[in-house]
Amino acid sequence: MATQKMLTFVSTPRETPEKRPAIERSEDFHEIYREFADAKAAEQASRCSQCGVPYCQSHCPLHNNIPDWLRLTAEGRLEEAYRVSQATNTFPEICGRICPQDRLCEGNCVIEQSGHGTVTIGSIEKYITDTAWEMGWVRPAAPVMERSETVGIIGAGPGGLAAADMLRRQGFQVTIYDRYDRAGGLLTYGIPGFKLEKDVVLRRNKWLADSGVEFVLNCNVGEDVSFDAIRGRHDAVLIATGVYKTRDLNLDNADAGGVVRAIDYLTASNKVDFGDEVPDYDDGELNARGKRVIVIGGGDTAMDCVRTAIRQGAQSVKCLYRRDRANMPGSQREVQNAEEEGVEFVWMSAPGSFVGHVTGVAMQAQEADVDGLPQIAPQIANVRVQKMRLGAPDVTGRQAPELIEGADYDEPADLVIKALGFEPEDLPKLWGVDGLEVTRWGTIKANFQTHQTSLPGVFAVGDIVRGASLVVWAIRDGREAAESIAGYLTGEARVAAE
Ligand SMILES: Cc1cc2nc3c(=O)[nH]c(=O)nc-3n(C[C@H](O)[C@H](O)[C@H](O)COP(=O)(O)OP(=O)(O)OC[C@H]3O[C@@H](n4cnc5c(N)ncnc54)[C@H](O)[C@@H]3O)c2cc1C
Ligand code: SF4
């Protein structure tokens, strides 16, 4: 690989890896960005200005040593770059693909602020670790000494997996319980393949199994085994169950046929991508083929739904969001990708009600009018769309959407996907656990640094503590919690270094 001098940002323009043409990528679930060629990665890494106070590093939740691995990449010392990169991040190739870099590392790059365009940190991070996998540099953990203490982790998402990795490296015996049939949490069943191909996640799951982590899948804690039983089996327990309760809409015909939850829709699509049999997809309920699709919401989940619907062959895909483009929570990069693929965004709009039509089956049921028979909901026909304008800022400082009276109209729809965000399930109640304290939002109360909950020996990380957040934060939590669990088990006070 060619060796490059640093600080070339003045003469070398910013380049991202090539994006597959929209017409081609809309036909499949493969990732849309191609890999950097070796010379291009070195060239782009050499744009880094190696500043004394790297804001990219301080704005990365993992405090990745970005300037060092950029320099090593520019110098063609890729194995060393990989060693530095993996020292602070359990899944660098995953973060490189799906972190919202524009809000984190790249958004704080100094050369971006001087108008030269940020270093493409995420793409280079992905390139380094993809190369490491190809070259065989990524090896399972080989603890110097096995320890007898065991840790039970509930939830195999990025938070639980990151903790498992750090604990195994120190020789602890780790068992992860997950209710799904595959590990990875939202990396596996939430985020679609066009952002994160499933092989990338599966090889990490295998790497952890090869490191000696035991996976107990298809095991729903609270149903198949009690939380108390897990506590009884292990010396410490980590709760990393994420948040899955969908925020709902209180509208007329909210339960009409064809109105579905984003998580069900995306999980079904990911399962189909794995080649699994999915009856709700095969019978059309969770399949957008040939339909007029409306997705409600403006976050990353909504972006994943609209782009999945395009790939399933929807007739049209519209996204309703009650604020404008500048005020949406989802990544601008994803909006642009979605628009290129044919999604229409209807800004400043919200559903007022769902208008259903009574299908033949529902009609028969109603006509029969037999006592005790369940009422069959109508099928979605239209979404009555309300138009909004942005009013005065609310307590959070964001401009609150206000209704424009009399501007409603009907938008025909065959499939409506609700992507309004997620809330925590009531775990203490679901699991019948006394003394597990939650916050007023229902998330588990845990110390910010140690991740210790109100129960001795029980720790918690990721979305179930933070509320719906990001993969990189779950990884950070998991790594930190592993340190304090190790301290708890060995009697040494340990808090992960900032
Ligand atoms: C559609 C979608 C797209 C997203 N896109 C991005 C993105 O592009 N970039 C980004 O950074 N973040 C993204 N996120 C957010 C990110 O996926 C989460 O913040 C992250 O996965 C949280 O990790 P976690 O380990 O806390 O939980 P999860 O990933 O949710 O994993 C929790 C695991 O716990 C298991 N579990 C739950 N309850 C039980 C139980 N009772 N018994 C056994 N197992 C249980 C679940 O099956 C799951 O496997 C996205 C989220 C969604 C929904
Ligand atoms: S982990 Fe995310 S925020 Fe940190 S350097 Fe990588 S892409 Fe940027």
Automatic annotation (TrEMBL):
Pfam families: Fer4_20 (PF14691), Pyr_redox_2 (PF07992). Residues 151-478 form the FAD/NAD(P)-binding domain. Residues 1-14 have a biased composition (Polar residues). GO terms for molecular function: 4 iron, 4 sulfur cluster binding; metal ion binding; oxidoreductase activity. It comes from the Bacteria. Gene3D superfamilies: Alpha-helical ferredoxin (1.10.1060.10), FAD/NAD(P)-binding domain (3.50.50.60). Keywords: 4Fe-4S, Iron, Iron-sulfur, Metal-binding, Oxidoreductase. Residues 26-136 form the Dihydroprymidine dehydrogenase domain. Residues 1-20 are annotated as: Disordered. This is Glutamate synthase (NADPH) small subunit.
